[in-house]
Amino acid sequence: MQHVRFVARAVALAAVLLVGVGACALDPQGDGSGAAAPAPVGVTERASGASAAPTPGQPTGSPPAQPSRTATPKPSRTATPKPSATPKPSSSGFTGCPQGEHQRAVETYLARLGGFGKLTVDGRQSAADCAAIKRFQRRYGISPAAGRAGATTYDVAKRLAGTDVRRCRAGAGLTFCIDLTRQTVWAMRGGTVVMGPTVTRTGMAGYATPTGTYRVGGRNLREWSNPYEVWLPYWQRFNGGIGFHETTTYLHNGAIGSHGCVNLLHADAVRLWELGSIGTRVVVFGRRPGT
C-alpha cells in the first residue's frame, strides 16, 4: 500500500513539473511567475523611439539578460577602417579638392598665364591642379579659395589670359593701361610690361568709364568721396572725379560696378600707387559688357 502511494505522489509531481516547463516555453503571455511578457514591437517603438524589435524571449520589464559571447560577436579590427589623414588620388580622380564645371578650361588658362605651379591640362582634378587653382584664386581675391574651377575662376582666368598688352598705345614713359572689354589693368614703361595684367571693375551701366588718353592729376593715400560718403584708398585721379582706387566691395560681384572709377584689389592698388606719380599717362580703351 505504501508502495502504491509513493508511486502516485511521484506521478503527480512529474505532472506538475511538465505543466510548468510547457508554460514557460510556449505561453507568449507569461509563465505565471510575475514577469511581464515581451511587449509588442509597436509599443516598444512608441515608448523608446527605437526602430529595432525587442529581443525575443527577453521580458521588457526585467533587467536585460547578459549577452553570451556568441550572441554579439565583437567587431574585428577590419570591420571599421580608420580614415586616412590625407586623401590619396585614386584611379577615378583626385578627391581631396572639389572639381568644378570648368576644370579643363581653367587648367588651360593657368598653364598659359604661368606662375601658379605645375598642372596638367586634362580636365581632371589632381593635387597639383588644386594647389595651382588655389594660388590663382588667392592672388585675384576669388572667394572661396577652395581650388574649385567654378564660374568666377573661369571668368577671371579667361579675361587675364585673353588680355593683349600690345593693344595699349603706351608712350615712352610710364603708362597705366585699362582694357574695359576684359576688365583688366596693367602698366608699361617704354613698351615693357612693369606690372602684369590684373583684374578690375569699372563703371556700371549709366556710369561707364570713358575711353581716351589722360594724365594722373591728383593722388591721395586716402580720399574721401563726398557724393558716396566712402573712403577711397590709394586714390589716383585721371579724369575729373574718376580715378584708380582700392575696391570697397567684393570685386568679383559682376552685378554691380563703380560710378566710373577703376576699382582694384588691395595689392594692385598699392603697386599702382608705388609706380605712379602726377603726370603718369593713362590709356583707356574697349567697352565693358553691358554698358
Summed up:
With 291 residues, the protein is an alpha+beta fold. Helix content is 27%, strand content 19%.
CATH architecture of the domain at 169-285: Beta Barrel
**What does the radius of gyration come to?**
39 Å
The general outline is globular
CATH class of the domain at 169-285: Mainly Beta
CATH superfamily of the domain at 169-285: L,D-transpeptidase catalytic domain-like
Total helix count? 6
Helix content: 25-40%
CATH fold description of the domain at 169-285:
L,D-transpeptidase catalytic domain-like
Profile the largest sheet.
Answer: 5 strands, mixed
Number of strands: 9
Distance between the termini: 125 Å
Element order, helices and strands? Answer: HHHHHEEEEEEEEHE
Q: In terms of per-residue confidence, which ranges show pLDDT below 50 for 5 or more consecutive residues?
A: 10-73, 83-92
Strand content: 15-25%
**Average pLDDT:** 78
Q: Spatial order of the strands in the main sheet? A: 3-2-1-9-4
The secondary-structure class comes to alpha+beta
Domain L,D-TPase catalytic: 174-285
Keywords: Cell shape, Cell wall biogenesis/degradation, Peptidoglycan synthesis, Signal, Transferase
Pathway: Cell wall biogenesis; peptidoglycan biosynthesis
GO molecular function: peptidoglycan L,D-transpeptidase activity; transferase activity
Account of the protein in words:
It contains six helices and nine strands, in the order H-H-H-H-H-E-E-E-E-E-E-E-E-H-E. With 291 residues, it is an alpha+beta fold. Among the domains are: 58 residues; 117 residues, L,D-transpeptidase catalytic domain-like (Beta Barrel), CATH 2.40.440. The longest helix has 25 residues. It is globular. The chain starts with a helix and ends in a 6-residue tail after the last strand. Keywords: Cell shape, Cell wall biogenesis/degradation, Peptidoglycan synthesis, Signal, Transferase. This is Putative peptidoglycan binding protein. One of its GO terms (biological process) is peptidoglycan-protein cross-linking. It holds the Pfam family YkuD. It comes from Micromonospora kangleipakensis.
